[in-house]
């Protein structure tokens, strides 16, 4: 990922090209995340070599049978949307997940091509789920899947994001999902991670929930040799609701690092998180969750639960719940368990 590789990328629109150049400078300046920081304590990337070739994976989009164009829905490649709906893309791209967050988000911002853009106009309801399948089948490749989903005020949609590959010798998935849930909108987002062995998956999903809006997510993790998945929801408007569900199964020497944030900014919001996992062989999993109730977010109701079942002697799981409460009229709780199956 040097300057020569950067110059070979297809040119984007002028605003996105500026963003890409800035991300490339950030990538060169930022270090690889270290276990010395709490955020990366359980995932060791000290020997990780960024010797990949940027690759555009194949992407298949499945519609619901409704006439999306007639409804004003935009469901297409992110680069195409940057040309045909420039104002929307430029207003939202990398606002929830800035490129300077880590070295890998900067790498993503610099080398991303393709991706999925979904826009649901005001008060439009999509009756059946929409889906994108991202498929990678090249050894030594790095893919940068990016989903930008915008549900305008009062809109409703269910979206399924699938990621899959065969077993590979070595590959990288550096993925970002940004979801904007407008006031009164309802969004259901399902992520299915089925990368093959040999893939390192580093993914960040971040949603912003507006006033009286509802966001429900389900993260399913089965694949990759190493998978780090971060899921964050910002409850930015009063009366918002978030449900975050996760399930994973690890075997062999798989390493899963799941992290969640329930960020309560506005008052009278509620959030509920439940992650469940099972491990066997010599696999390793860690779940770390953070509920943050900010000043002024009174009447918050937040719950965080993690359940892990260890199916063999050498498998290991950790669950680390965290609460940070800066308001005095709230109801928050957390629960975590790690243990074998009862005899």
Structure characterization notes:
The chain is mainly beta and 343 residues long. It has one domain (3-33, 68-340). Helix content is 14%, strand content 46%. The protein has six helices and 20 strands. The strands form two sheets. Strands 1, 3, 4, 6, 7, 9, 11, 13, 15, 17 and 19 form an eleven-stranded mixed beta sheet that branches. Strands 2-5-8-10-12-14-16-18-20 form a nine-stranded mixed beta sheet, with no helix packed on it. α2 packs antiparallel against α6 (103-111) and α4 (78-84) crosses α5. The longest helix has 16 residues, at 14-29. The chain is globular. The termini are far apart. The mean pLDDT is 94.
Classification by helices and strands = mainly beta
Low-confidence stretches: none
Number of strands: 20
The tally of structural domains comes to 1
User: What is the distance, rounded to the nearest whole angstrom, between the alpha carbons of the first and last residues?
Assistant: 51 Å
Arithmetic mean pLDDT = 94
Q: How many helix segments?
A: 6
Helix and strand layout, with pairings?
Layout: H1 3-7, H2 14-29, E1 53-54, E2 58-62, H3 68-71, E3 74-77, H4 78-84, H5 86-92, H6 103-111, E4 116-120, E5 130-135, E6 141-143, E7 146-151, E8 156-164, E9 171-181, E10 186-194, E11 199-209, E12 214-221, E13 226-235, E14 241-250, E15 255-264, E16 270-279, E17 284-293, E18 301-310, E19 316-325, E20 331-340
Parallel strand pairs: 1-6, 4-7, 5-8, 6-9, 7-9, 8-10, 9-11, 10-12, 11-13, 12-14, 13-15, 14-16, 15-17, 16-18, 17-19, 18-20
Antiparallel strand pairs: 2-5, 3-4
Helix pairs in contact: 2-6, 4-5
């Amino acid at each position: 990922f040097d300057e020569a590789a950067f110059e070979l990328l297809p040119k984007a629109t002028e605003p996105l090209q500026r963003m890409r150049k800035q991300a490339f400078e950030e990538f060169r300046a930022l270090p690889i995340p270290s276990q010395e920081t709490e955020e990366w304590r359980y995932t060791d990337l000290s020997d990780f070599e960024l010797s990949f070739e940027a690759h555009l994976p194949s992407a298949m989009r499945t519609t619901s049978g409704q006439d999306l164009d007639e409804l004003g829905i935009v469901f297409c490649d992110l680069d195409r949307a940057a040309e045909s709906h420039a104002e929307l893309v430029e207003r939202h791209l990398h606002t929830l997940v800035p490129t300077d967050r880590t070295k890998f988000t900067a790498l993503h911002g610099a080398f991303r091509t393709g991706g999925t853009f979904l826009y649901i106009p005001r008060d439009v309801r999509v009756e059946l789920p929409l889906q994108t399948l991202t498929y990678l089948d090249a050894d030594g490749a790095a893919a940068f899947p990016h989903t930008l989903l915008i549900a305008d005020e009062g809109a409703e949609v269910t979206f399924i994001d699938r990621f899959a590959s065969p077993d590979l010798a070595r590959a990288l998935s550096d993925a970002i999902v940004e979801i904007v849930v407008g006031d009164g909108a309802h969004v259901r987002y399902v992520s299915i991670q089925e990368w093959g062995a040999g893939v390192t998956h580093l993914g960040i999903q971040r949603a912003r929930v507006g006033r009286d809006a509802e966001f429900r997510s389900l993260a399913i993790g089965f694949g990759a040799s190493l998978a780090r998945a971060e899921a964050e929801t910002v409850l930015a408007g009063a009366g918002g609701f978030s449900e975050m569900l996760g399930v994973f199964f690890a075997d062999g020497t798989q390493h899963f690092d799941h992290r969640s944030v329930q960020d309560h900014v506005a008052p009278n919001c509620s959030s509920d998180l439940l992650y469940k996992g099972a491990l066997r062989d010599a696999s390793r999993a860690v779940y770390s969750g953070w509920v943050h109730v900010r000043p002024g977010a009174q009447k918050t109701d937040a719950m965080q639960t993690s359940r892990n079942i260890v199916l063999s002697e050498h498998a290991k799981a950790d669950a680390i719940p965290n609460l940070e409460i800066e308001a005095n009229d709230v109801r928050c709780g957390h629960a975590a368990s790690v243990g074998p199956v009862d005899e």
